[in-house]
Structure formats: C-alpha cells, structure tokens
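Table S2 (text version). Query chain:
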Amino acid sequence: MTAAIYPAPNRPGPSARRVLYTHPGLAVFLLLLPPLLWFGTVYLGSLLSLLAQSVYSIDDFTGEIVRVPSLMTFRALLSQPAHLDIVLRTLAMAVMVAAFSVPIAFPVAYFMARYARGGIKALFFVTVMLPMWTSYLVKVYAWRLILAKQGIVSWAFDQLGLSAALEAVLKLPLVGGPSLASSYMGMLLVFVYMWLPFVILPIEAALERVPRALVEASGDLGATPRQTLMRVILPLAVPGIAAGSIFAFSLTLGDYIIPQVVGAPGYFIGMMVYEQQGTAGNVPLAAAFSIVPIILIGLYLLMARRLGAFDAL
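Corresponding structure-token output:
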C-alpha cells in the first residue's frame, strides 16, 4: 500500500550498478560526456566553422564571399609582403616574450618551490596570481600611462640622471619610438608582465616534483650548487619551462589589444583577424590569418618535443 502511494525513486538497477562497477572506464566516460559535448559543440564547432571559411574567397568587385573552395585566400596571404610582415612581426614578438619571461619567472618559481613555506608560500601564490584578478583593459591602459613620455618611468630615469640613456635606447631602430608607450620595447614589457603568472606557475609545479633526494645526493657526491642546478634541477624542470614558454608564446600570437594600446604602429595577427572579420568584412582572410598561430604553435610544440622537452613528463 505504501509502495503504491510513494513509488520508489528512479535509481539504476543492480545490473546497471554492476556494469559501472566492473567497467570503471565506462563510468568515467559517462561523467566526462556532458563537458566533452559542450566543449566539442561550443568551442571546437565554432573554431572549425571559422577555419572552414579560409577555403573561401571574397569577390573584389562586390565584396561578397564566394563559397567555392579554393586556395586563393592563402595565396593572397603568402604572396603579399604586408601580410608576411605582419606574421614575422608577431612571431618575433612572441619569441621575445617567451625568451624574456622564462629567465624572470624561473628564480621566482624556484624560491616558491624550494624555500618558501607556510604563509610565505601562500603570499607568493597570491602575489603571482593577483594581477590575474584585475581587469585586463585596466592593466593595459595603466601601463600606457606608466610608460608615457611624462609617466613614472620617464620621471624615474630623469631623477636618476639617466634620461640621456633612455633617449638613446628609444632612438634605436626596431626597438624604440617617441616614448616607451609607443615602442616595441614598451610592448614587450607589457606582454611579459601580462603573461608572467602563466609562466611562473608551470615552472613552480615542475620544480615541486623534483625529488629532494636527488638534490641532496648531488651535493653528497661533490657537486657544487651551480652544477646541481644545471645538471639535476634544470633538466627535470624543462617540461614546466616548456609549458610556461608555450603559454607566453601562444598568448602573444593571438593578442590584439596590447598592440593597439601600447607599442609602435604596425599590425599583428590578432589585430588583422579582428579587423578583417569585423570592420573589413573579409571573413576568409581573417580565417586564414587564424590558422597561422595554430601552425606556429604546432611547429613550436614539435620542436620542443624533438629537443626532449617532454621526456620528463
């Protein structure tokens, strides 16, 4: 009587529970299926839809998209010197950002992993991640004010009597400009600041996994601290260094806000994608430019793998 009034909840039967128990992989698959469907539909679906536009072209006379598969857009991308200049400029900046970020991030990550304890370590984590909690645009425009001709950096150089040195650096070709806020040097500084947390955290995680017994054994065998760092710690931290440099490299390739606000005049890949898809309405060219970072990141990963960067994973 009670069972008729209050029906039993809809639970998997003994056979279903037995199947999930005997096949744990199936249970994991069912748990991951909803987020994978969302990821595949929303992210990969929209990305593939954009990339599919790259095989189309645009009619120069009417401005309409010609939905006939061809390689005309890629031919225009590779044949025009202005487009190649954009790719090379973006690639050079991404390499420089990765090259400057790693030497700055490694000492911070090393101290966090090896020496910081308790509250000091928590303070370091909060300090590293604190810039990520601030608005991206606020940080970019704040740096533009800091690097401006009458900003605090110029004031500090003037107070130290180094204004002439700063002016000499700003006069260098391919580096300087009217001010730090309008130079590639200033752009590099802002990029390094923005992506530094993404470089510090992977390196710190890799250094945390280095067994202390290996470091102690290296010292017991007569190795100096420098030899221990170069021959024991650094090789085992290479996967974290590679991951951090990939973050800095890839994020720089796709950014389109910093080059518009800080730095010398000149288009970057992200700016071209934004302008061609929005203002110009040339979606095929924007899609073709979107493929360039994917290819560059793939080549970067292949090179890092061939150099053994992921052997310690």
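Notes on Table S2: The chain is about 70% helix and 0% strand. Residues 55 and 70 are 5 Å apart (CA to CA).
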